[in-house]
């Protein structure tokens, strides 16, 4: 299997890719056509191979036959890719070209519509999640900010923070009791400062 994979990679893909490059560089139309026919046949072979590997991999010498087939396609003596293209692929594609083009246009339109539909759904889900997270996090954020502001108030007083009861820095629910506690705490610090 590994030998087949590397043989196919080298002889089925890299070797033809290099010679396709040389055909493009030389701008020889004959070489263009030759390598385009090869790539069309190789694409069909790779597609068919995806399914045949599932059902025929148990067949004796299956991988060796695949290597031989790729060599036959490439050989300048057998001209396998040219033969298959001219005898089977070109006549079949020519007779079915209109139907294939129509199917491709319909598939393109459907895929675009599906992409737009799923994109809108994804944005709606993301927006809903963001709103939910913000609404859940708003209460926690305001509590956190409130607790920080009370701590900041206690540190502004300086060393007198030790005389402030802990209920003032943590508890923020009662607004009326808070100023009284703060006044008594500041009066206590003021009277202790006079002594």
Automatic annotation (TrEMBL):
GO terms for biological process: endoplasmic reticulum tubular network organization. Residues 160-174 have a biased composition (Low complexity). Coiled coil: none annotated. It is a multi-pass membrane protein. It comes from the Eukaryota. Its main location: membrane. GO terms for molecular function: microtubule binding; olfactory receptor binding. Keywords: Membrane, Transmembrane, Transmembrane helix. Belongs to the DP1 family. This is Receptor expression-enhancing protein.
């Amino acid at each position: 299997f590994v030998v087949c994979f590397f043989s196919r990679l080298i002889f089925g893909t890299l070797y033809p890719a290099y010679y396709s490059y040389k055909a493009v560089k030389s701008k020889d139309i004959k070489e263009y056509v030759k390598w385009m026919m090869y790539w069309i046949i190789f694409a069909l072979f790779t597609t068919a191979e995806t399914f045949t590997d599932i059902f025929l991999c148990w067949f004796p010498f299956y991988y060796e036959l695949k290597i031989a087939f790729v060599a036959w396609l490439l050989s300048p003596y057998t001209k396998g890719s040219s033969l298959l293209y001219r005898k089977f692929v070109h006549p079949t594609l020519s007779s079915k070209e209109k139907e294939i083009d129509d199917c491709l246009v319909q598939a393109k339109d459907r895929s675009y519509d599906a992409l737009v539909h799923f994109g809108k759904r994804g944005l709606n889900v993301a927006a809903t999640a963001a709103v939910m997270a913000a609404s859940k996090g708003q209460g926690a954020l305001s509590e956190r900010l409130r607790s920080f502001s009370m701590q900041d108030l206690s540190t502004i007083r300086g060393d007198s923070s030790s005389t402030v009861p802990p209920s003032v820095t943590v508890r923020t629910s009662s607004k009326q009791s808070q100023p009284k506690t703060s006044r008594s705490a500041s009066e206590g610090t003021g009277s202790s400062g006079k002594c």
